Amino acid sequence: MEKDWVKIFSSDQPYQAELARQVLEENGIQAVVMNKKDSSYLMFGETELYVSQDDVIKAKQLIKTLEH
User: Are 29 and 62 in contact (CB under 8 A)?
Assistant: First the structure.
């Protein structure tokens, strides 16, 4: 992952981050999901979604539409 990437979303439910990633990529925004859940204790940690710094504003607007 490039150094200029920004976390725009996190969730304790990995499917939510994957859904958000799909929406972003359908809209031309490259996104990366990082699963930071503990492999032994799945209740700890989150799944995070990152986009390029150049796409942050547009990506956050698209993510906001998912929440409504």
Answer: yes
